[in-house]
Amino acid sequence: MSTISLEECESLDAPSSSCQCYANLCPLLYNGTAEREACFMQPCFISKRALEEPALIQITILYVLIFIIGIVGNLITCIVIRRHPLLQTHSSSYLLNLAMSDLVTLCVGLPFEVVMNWNQYPWPFPDFVCNLKGLVAETTSSVSILTILLFCIERYIAVNHPFVFVKLKPIRRQVCPILVVTWLVSIVCAIPFGYYHRADYILKSWPGTEDGQPFLFHFSAIVFFLLPLSVIFILYMLIAFHVITRRKRLRLTRADSTEEAHFRVTIILSSIVCAFFVCYLPYQAQRVMFFYLDPDSSLSQLNQYIYFISGLLFYLATIVNPILYNLVSSRFRKASKEVLLLICIGRREGSLSSLRKTNNTMKCAVKYTIASKHSQRCLVKHLSDSTII
C-alpha cells in the first residue's frame, strides 16, 4: 500500500501536486521527524545548490569582499567615532550604532549565508545556529531602520524647531539608553523569526510550515520598513523645505555656520536612507512574494534568483555606510585620516591631547561668534555640539 501510494505521488504531473501528495503521505508513513523529512525532501527539495557552481563561485567571491570591506570599514568607523573629539557628539552615536549593527550582521550572518548557498540541505551545523542566523538578520535590520528613524526625528527637531531642540537636551543626553532600547525591542520582535527560521527549503504544501509565518513577514515589512520609511520621507520633505528656504534667505544676508552644519548632517542622513531603501527593498519584497507565488509558475523560479540578489544587497548594505561617511563628510574624512595616522605612528596620547584642545577652541569660537542675546549664543553652542560630523 505504501509503495503504491508513493508511486501515485510520483506519477502526478504538476510538481506542486506531487509534493502536496508527499506532504500528506509522509507523516502517515513515518513517525520520526528525520524520516518524515527525508521522505518529503528527496523528491521535493529543489537541489543541494540552487545555482550552478560558476555562479556560486562568483557570489562567494563577492561575499568575501563584502565581509573584508565591511569588517574593516565598520571597525574604522567605530574607532574614529570613539577616538576623535570632533566626532564625539549625539549625532555620531547613531552612526556608531549603525556600524555595530553592521558588524553583528557580517560576523554572525554572512559566513553561514555562504555555507547555505553551497549546501542548502542537509544543514551541517546545529539547529540553534540556523535559529540564531534568522534572529540576528531580523534584529540588525530592525535596529538599523529604527536608528535611522530616531536620527531623522532628531534632525527634524534640530532644523525645524531649534528652540525645542535646546529644551530637549536632557533627553538627548540619554541617546545611548534609547539606542539600547531599540536593540531590546528589535530582539523581542525578531524572536519568532529565529524560532521559525530553517535551513532547509520546504514548499508551502508541507503541513504546519505556514503557522504564523505570513503574518510575521508582513508585520516586518510594514512595521520595520514601510511605516518608518514613510515617516522618514515626510520628515525629509519638511527638512528639505526648511533648509532650502533658509539657505536662500541667508544668501541675501550672511553665512551661518549652524545652517551649514545642519545641511551637512542632512546630506549624510539622506544618503544613508537612500542606501538603506535600495538595499533592503528587494529583501523585504522577496520575503513577502514567496507567499503569493505558485510553485509551478515561472515567477516562482524567478523568485529564487531574486532571493540571491536580495541576500547580496542585504549584506552589501553593511559596507555602504562607512563609504558614504567618507565620501559625503569632509569632517569624517579628515577625522579618519588623523586617527588612523595616530594609530600607525603610535603617538596617540600627545596628539589626541592636541586634538582635544583644537576641539575646545572650535566650540568656544562657535559659542561667542554671535554677540547678541545670551539665548542666541546658547542656542548656537547647543546646536553646534550636536551637529559636528
TrEMBL record:
Spell out where the chain crosses the membrane: 55-81, 93-112, 132-153, 174-195, 215-244, 265-285, 305-328
Question: Residue limits of the G-protein coupled receptors family 1 profile domain?
Answer: 73-325
A single Pfam family it belongs to is 7tm_1
UniProt subcellular location: Membrane
User: Gene3D superfamilies, alphabetically?
Assistant: Rhodopsin 7-helix transmembrane proteins
Which InterPro entries does the protein's record reference?
A: GPCR_Rhodpsn, GPCR_Rhodpsn_7TM
Q: Which UniProt keywords apply?
A: G-protein coupled receptor, Membrane, Receptor, Transducer, Transmembrane, Transmembrane helix
Where does the source fall among the domains of life? Eukaryota
Q: Which residues form a coiled coil?
A: none
- Entry GO terms, CC: plasma membrane
Keyword Ribosomal protein assigned to the entry: answer is no
Record-level Gene Ontology MF annotations? neuropeptide receptor activity
Bilayer topology annotation: Multi-pass membrane protein
**What family, per the record?**
Belongs to the G-protein coupled receptor 1 family.
Q: What is this protein called?
A: G-protein coupled receptors family 1 profile domain-containing protein
